[in-house]
Amino acid sequence: MGQDTILGTDTIKDALKTKVNNDIAELFAAVAALAAGGGILISSNDTTAGYLNGKLVAGEGIDLTEGDDGADERLTVAGEDASTTNKGIVELATDAETLTGTDTTRACTPANITAKMAELGVVGGAGSFTTIAASGNVTLDTLTASKPVFTDGSKNLVSTGTMPVDQGGTGQTTYTNGQLLIGNTTGNTLAKATLTGTANQITVTNGAGTITLSIPANFLIPTVTTIPNEGLHILDTNASHDLIVKPGSDLSADRILTITTGDAARTLTIPANTTLFASGTVMLFGQNAAPTGWTRKADWQDNAMLCYAASGNIGSGGVVNPQSTHTHTGPNHTHSIPHDGWAPNSHVSPGSGDHIGINASELVDAYEREANGDNTSGEEGTGATGANTAPHYQEVIAAIKD
After folding, report:
1. Which residues, at least 6 apart from 97, have a Cβ–Cβ distance to it below 8 Å?
2. pLDDT tens digits, 176-232
3. What does the buried/exposed string (b/e) look like for 215-245 if buried means 16 or more CB atoms within 10 Å of the residue's CB?
4. Domain ranges of the chain
5. What pLDDT is stored for residue 210 in this prediction?
6. Are strands 91-92 and 106-107 parallel, antiparallel or unpaired?
7. Cα Rg for the chain, rounded, in angstroms?
8. 402 with 296: CB under 8 angstroms?
9. 257 Cβ contact partners less than 8 Å away, ≥ 6 residues apart
10. Distances (CA, A) of 301 to 296, 304, 320, 393
11. Which stretches of 52-119 are assigned E, i.e. beta strand?
């Protein structure tokens, strides 16, 4: 039936009445046309009546088939089968048919696709997925073989060149023995470099996958080297044990141990379990104060030193200070003088310093005794030290090891 125009002023009753009247008019016109053998009209204003096989036009994907020609004819309207080149009617596939994946005539619905994705392990909401599970190899044809895979600025997977540093890679493809990657703020890169040693201090040996650090045979100690208080370990002659040199006590400040050998090789032999000077050792020092670890002896001052070479214990004696003015007294004694010579019969025994005291009258008497052959006795004599008769000397102190 045709389309009718209903004005805004019409009531619902008037509008329905108009519609029914028009439809009835079109129906009677069509029946009249059929009765007259002129065919049908498409609408009330159709100017040409015709038959269905002429009035109906098959569109894309539609077939019109006239049956029982010349008898009780029928016009069959049927949809064509859809294909990749022809629009038409298609049957929807079931989930099972979709999962099988071999049917070429049925169409899949979103529900079928979801079922297939779930079977493949792809799970997620609309427009995305959260997991992918694969039991075999997955090949992505757009990627380059044997290259790292990362995303570009558009979030696409790419695989070209070398994995850059900003993607978590190294930006490097080749290395030499012992090379390390060292950060470089310029360009945010990783630079390749090898360790280098210092002559006579540290030796670096680069190998395939190894770096060996060692001390050369002729090791040069730098200007300042701090060694832990476990000590300095020095291998023995056959490298089987260590000689450990370490401090034996706490220090209140930095101390310097200086070893002077002179311009020649020296050997220092230390007996087992001993110290350089045992406690109680007495030594002389040409200085005003005793060295550290020694105590000055207060009972040896103003004494002359006597070298005691015989066996037995050392001793001490005497009451005269050898540095003060004093008198020497010699014992009574007898000289035997042969007849062909002479000698004074009275003299003073030489003492410390440059002095000999001889009595003048006794010298004359000595001549007389020589003339008479009387030279059998002598008397004791004395002599006093002179004002300028003191020998050169060096004062020292005596100290005892603590």
Report:
1. 103, 106, 112
2. 999 998 888 888 888 889 998 888 888 999 999 899 998 887 777 777 777 777 888
3. eeeeeeeeeeeeeeeeeeeeeeeeeeeeeee
4. 12-79, 91-120, 277-313+321-385+393-402
5. 92
6. parallel
7. 68
8. no
9. none
10. 10, 9, 12, 14
11. 62-67, 74-79, 91-92, 106-107
Q: pLDDT value at position 97?
A: 92
- 3 state DSSP class of 153: coil
Half-sphere exposure of 10 (CA within 13 A, CB side): 12
The tokens describing 384, both together, are 């006093």
Q: Which of 361, 363, 352, 303 is nearest to 328 (CA)?
A: 352
Residue 120 pLDDT > 60: yes
> What's the length of the chain?
402
CB 30 within 8 A of CB 41: yes
Dihedral angle at the C-alpha atoms of 98, 99, 101, 105, nearest 10 degrees?
-20
Question: What would the pLDDT profile of 37-89 be if each residue is shown by its tens digit?
Answer: 566 777 778 888 787 778 788 888 888 888 888 888 888 888 888 888 888 88
Spatial separation of the C-alpha atoms in residues 221 and 204, rounded to whole Å: 17
First to last CA, the chain: 139
Smallest CA-to-CA distance from 245 within 215, 210, 278, 221 is with 221
DSSP state of 143: S
91, two tokens: 């049957």
Maximum alpha-carbon separation in the chain = 219
CA angle (37 as vertex; 34, 42 as ends), nearest 5? 45
pLDDT computed for residue 349 by the predictor: 42
